[in-house]
Design the sequence.
């Protein structure tokens, strides 16, 4: 990937700069040592040995002429300048200031674009900006989405800033039927954080009472986790030596807030990361590949034009017989060459269509993206490694993971029987799985 190449090139330049700096400091250090040694020798001489001063200085001069510190430092500087020039050339090739080269005429669905922008602003809590945008486009149907995201941000802020879980528990209780097993999972995580807060600052009786009141009802669904929490009571006086330190990590509040926001967005039918963020990230990742392709295409077109002009000028100076023979050979070669190129181009185009994106002239550009930004027109089940079909469609579990229908259904015999996600082990039922359309 081009950005990874830039990162490696930058690391190489930094390493080279440190090495050159170290060598330059070594040269200066050697020269200073020689001067100090010469000065020490001169100071140790008596007044009658004045002639020896000259010999010491001549010895110092001979050393400097042989060591040649200026030439050494200049050589190090040239090496560094060469590396910086190569790095600048790499940046110039991959990053262009003229973004219009990558533009193309596209018929946008303005309603969809507006919806994506509003959703992005709501995702990031920019409600005032979103209200101005909604008023400008004259839309009145975003009020429900706005209220939902405002509620989500207030709950998440309460969890992160004040460690308050009451609003989150109230929302879970209200959406219990829609959340399914995820409701119990979130309840356990929320009560777990308060339980450890009581365990650290309160008494054993308070912690035990909280455990009995709020956590023990979740025992049928999370037996192992509840047993671990009960075991932590034994380590009340030396909580730092508890065998489950990960449960008490303060960063769990942020992780829990993110998980809650993810479940909230899933219930709204929204992505945790806004669509606009994903599109912009994918565009930034793939833009360098597009520019490199456009640059190579432009250079090829330029060379072909020059070759054409050269062939025309060359043919004009030939005699009649030579021009006829040459033209017949050229026509024959062009036919063979064009047919071979067409065949090769069609083969490359068909193979590239599987992994690349199409440009306006029908060519395909291979764009290397990180896994989180990859979008596919087909879905391949990660369990069975088969392409989804109409009879075997992709199914999304409430946790967000997607499998083919034949991968999900065998996990349970009855629609309401609990099944575990093969990746994250979240429990759900077949009824809660939702079909996706590509």
Sequence:
């Amino acid at each position: 990937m081009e950005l990874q190449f830039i990162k490696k090139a930058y690391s190489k330049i930094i390493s080279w700069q440190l090495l050159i700096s170290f060598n330059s400091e070594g040269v200066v250090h050697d020269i200073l040592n020689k001067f100090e040694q010469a000065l020490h020798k001169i100071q140790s001489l008596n007044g009658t040995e004045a002639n020896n001063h000259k010999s010491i200085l001549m010895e110092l001069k001979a050393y400097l002429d042989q060591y040649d510190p200026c030439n050494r430092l200049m050589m190090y500087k040239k090496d560094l300048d060469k590396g910086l020039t190569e790095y600048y050339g790499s940046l110039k090739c991959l990053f262009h200031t003229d973004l219009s080269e990558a533009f193309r005429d596209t018929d946008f669905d303005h309603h969809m674009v507006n919806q994506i922008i509003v959703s992005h602003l709501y995702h990031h809590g920019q409600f005032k900006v979103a209200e101005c945008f909604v008023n400008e486009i004259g839309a009145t149907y975003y009020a429900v989405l706005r209220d939902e995201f405002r509620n989500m941000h207030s709950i998440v802020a309460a969890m992160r800033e004040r460690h308050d879980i009451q609003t989150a528990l109230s929302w879970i209780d209200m959406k219990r039927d829609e959340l399914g097993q995820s409701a119990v999972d979130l309840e356990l995580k929320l009560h777990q954080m308060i339980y450890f807060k009581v365990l650290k600052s309160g008494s054993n009786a308070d912690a035990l009472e909280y455990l009995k009141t709020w956590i023990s009802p979740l025992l049928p669904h999370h037996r192992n986790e509840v047993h671990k929490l009960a075991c932590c009571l034994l380590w009340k006086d030396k909580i730092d030596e508890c065998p489950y330190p990960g449960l008490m990590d303060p960063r769990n509040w942020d992780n829990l807030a993110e998980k809650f926001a993810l479940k909230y967005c899933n219930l709204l039918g929204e992505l945790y990361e806004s669509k606009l963020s994903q599109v912009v990230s994918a565009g930034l990742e793939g833009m360098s590949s597009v520019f490199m392709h456009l640059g190579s295409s432009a250079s090829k077109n330029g060379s072909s034009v020059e070759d054409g002009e050269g062939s025309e000028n060359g043919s004009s100076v030939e005699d009649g017989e030579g021009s006829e023979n040459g033209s017949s050979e050229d026509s024959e070669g062009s036919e063979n060459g064009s047919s071979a190129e067409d065949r090769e181009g069609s083969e490359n185009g068909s193979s590239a269509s599987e992994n690349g994106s199409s440009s306006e002239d029908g060519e395909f550009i291979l764009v290397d993206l990180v896994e989180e930004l990859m979008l596919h027109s087909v879905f391949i089940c990660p369990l069975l490694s088969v392409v989804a079909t109409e009879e075997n469609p992709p199914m999304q579990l409430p946790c967000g993971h997607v499998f083919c229908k034949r991968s999900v259904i065998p996990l349970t015999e009855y629609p309401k029987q609990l099944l575990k996600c093969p990746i994250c082990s979240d429990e759900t039922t077949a009824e809660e799985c939702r079909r996706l359309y590509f």
Q: What stands out?
A: The longest strand covers residues 356-358. The chain has three domains: 2-96, 110-268, 376-435. Residues 110-268 form a domain with the Serine Threonine Protein Phosphatase 5, Tetratricopeptide repeat fold (CATH 1.25.40).
